[in-house]
Fold this sequence. Notes:
This protein has about 290 residues and is α/β, with parallel strands linked by helices. It contains 12 helices and 8 strands. It has an 8-stranded mixed β-sheet with strand order 1-2-4-3-5-6-7-8, with helices on both faces. It is globular, with a radius of gyration of 17 Å. The model has no long low-confidence stretch (mean pLDDT about 95).
Amino acid sequence: MPLVDAGDVRLYVEEQGDGEPLLLIMGVGAQMTLWPAGFVELLVERGFRVIRFDNRDVGLSEQLDHIPPPSLTQMVRARYTPWRPASVAYDLHDMARDAVGVLDALGLPDAHVVGVSMGGMIAHLCAIEHASRVRTLTSIMSAPGDALSTTGDPRVMATLLSLRPTNAEEAGQARVKLAHAFNPGKLPLDEALIASLGAADYRRNSNPAGFARQFGAIMATAPRRAGLRTVRCPTHVIHGTHDPMIPVRGGRQTAQLVPGATLQLIDRMGHSLHPATWDEIVDGIVGCTQRWSD
């Protein structure tokens, strides 16, 4: 599918399957290809029309390179001193409007919405601010947005921020390094496959400035605790017991805030969609969507 107009930006969108529409929203700096092909196929087999898209500033979607990215100092200040906001290109509210804009472009009045990490935060805002467009909400490895619920192992954050590959081979090795950092539960890793996917993503697009702008959007967006209490659609929260990036308390707190939300903790799962967890995650998503049908 070509780029679609999604409000203020043009976004690259792909669809697969038929049935009830299911919108997948990916995390910070990550292209839609980080939704594994096998994972998407499982959802298609369960009867969904799966919609993936590159968020603004990554992949094949519009890049906002005319706007300088915020510095790390500005991003930290935006989070910990909200009375001194940083100047950022956009925030997560804008990215939630992007997601709704994808539905508009496809002529869809609503969809089941699934977000991972930053994508979960965007999905929260879709359910809070665009409630009529969200059939169900599934929040994976995400959090309400306050510093306590989102602050994980600083060593993992340092690893994420330090990776600056300059070619496809380096990008593949960087993906392997990050996969290990995100996987303290020691689920088995196929390093060769991970490296090849990292290299392919680098060749598809590499935009460190876009990552920085997205990270700035996270840091500049206020916590969603009050808003999550207003969500009324069926909501399911999935989190790994060994997530070093967004600790499991982030998932617990999200589930506690949304009325009627269910919580699914996956043993040994870190901050990634590891193949060993796909069946459990898909079952959780399906269970949530069935609550809407009921």
